[in-house]
Specification:
It is built from 13 helices and nine strands. It is an alpha+beta fold. Strands 1, 2, 3, 4, 5, 6, 7, 8 and 9 form a nine-stranded antiparallel beta sheet that branches.
Length: about 325
């Protein structure tokens, strides 16, 4: 198995994790590569091709920020198969592979068959792939690619119409997709200097760039229009969390609808409008509590719209299993 290392820093950031194939023989090195792919991307059966070198080589570097994972991958030619026997593994693996990959090919040639879609990818190509679909890949020429792994459910919440299409859209002519490629490169350079709060903000920006790349390519529908409106309201909520008066009534007024219509819009969602406001406020409080210089517990609670410190402490502990003071003490201790 490949060596793997990562170093933590006092501001919560981590050095990249790195893997490299090992083994004396080509079959063992390909087996090692299959294990690395399962750890860092998706599970594949890996085989040699006519162009696989006697000393097959492959390496992966992984960086995490917010909910996202940025993966650099380089390898010699090989063939990978991801069918029902590979995908029907342990439940934990199935859950971990509920991802969408935004991939940029930096070098080499790769052919892909994903569901009904067939692609030939070369340097400069951008593609969005679905970790839930059977896939065959062949690396024709030694390649290097950079991939941003998104939680599938979060992307579908932002772009509901994506779940209704039979094949993912092409992003080759998308300006926002090209901007996201440049953003990935900037993340690699800047991530070592970002604390946890800045990392979460960076991840949110990546979600918005991906949404901007995908949405214009998708057909409209009534159910999707409802989902798009919910996504817009979620963005409004995140922008106005600091306002104590933020509530279903104020949100409905901002969108020129009745409170009843607003509640009906969220009746088939995972949480109510009030629950959305509360959970988003709690997440922002958690981020600030993990930053030692973000102020006192009461200041943080008031900053994000809580008007009663005792009520804030109760709902925070119910949500996260620890009090705000306990989170703050742990953050201060970790920074010393």
């Amino acid at each position: 198995m490949a060596d793997r290392s990562a170093v933590s820093h006092s501001n919560g950031t981590r050095e990249p994790e790195r893997w490299r194939v090992s083994g004396a023989s080509t079959p063992r090195r390909l087996e090692s590569w299959s294990e690395i792919l399962a750890d860092t991307h998706l599970a594949f059966d890996v085989d040699a091709t006519a162009t696989t070198p006697a000393k097959f080589d492959g390496a992966v570097t992984r960086r995490r920020f917010g909910e996202l994972v940025l993966v650099d991958c380089a390898a010699s030619p090989f063939r990978g198969h991801r069918g029902p026997s590979v995908m029907g593994g342990q439940r934990e693996r199935e859950q971990s592979e509920q991802i969408l990959g935004f991939q940029f090919v930096c070098r080499g040639v790769e052919t892909v068959r994903e569901g009904s879609r067939q692609l030939a990818l070369t340097a400069g190509d951008v593609v969005l792939w679905d970790g839930t679909l059977p896939t065959d890949v062949e690396i024709v020429e030694s390649f290097y690619k950079r991939t941003l792994l998104f939680p599938r459910d979060r992307v579908l919440a932002l772009c509901p119409r994506l779940g209704e299409v039979n094949a993912f859209p092409s992003l080759s002519q998308s300006g926002p997709a090209r901007l996201l490629v440049r953003y990935m490169n900037a993340i690699v350079a800047e991530l070592p200097r970002l604390d946890s709060a800045a990392s979460n903000a960076a991840a949110n920006a990546a979600f918005e760039l991906l949404r901007a790349a995908i949405e214009p390519t998708l057909p409209p529908s009534r159910s999707v229009a409802r989902g798009a409106m919910r996504s817009e309201i979620r963005r409004y909520v995140r922008t106005h969390l600091h306002e104590p008066a933020l509530s279903p009534a104020s949100i409905a007024q901002a969108y020129a609808m009745s409170v009843r219509a607003l509640h009906a819009l969220f009746e088939d969602a995972d949480e109510s409008v009030a629950g959305l406001v509360r959970s988003e406020r709690l997440l922002r409080c958690l981020e600030d509590l993990q930053r030692p210089n973000a102020g006192s517990v009461t200041e943080i609670a008031f900053r994000w719209g809580f008007c009663d410190a005792a009520h804030f402490s109760r709902v925070f502990k119910r949500e996260f299993g620890a009090t705000p003071s306990e989170i703050r003490r742990a953050a201060v201790a970790h920074s010393q």
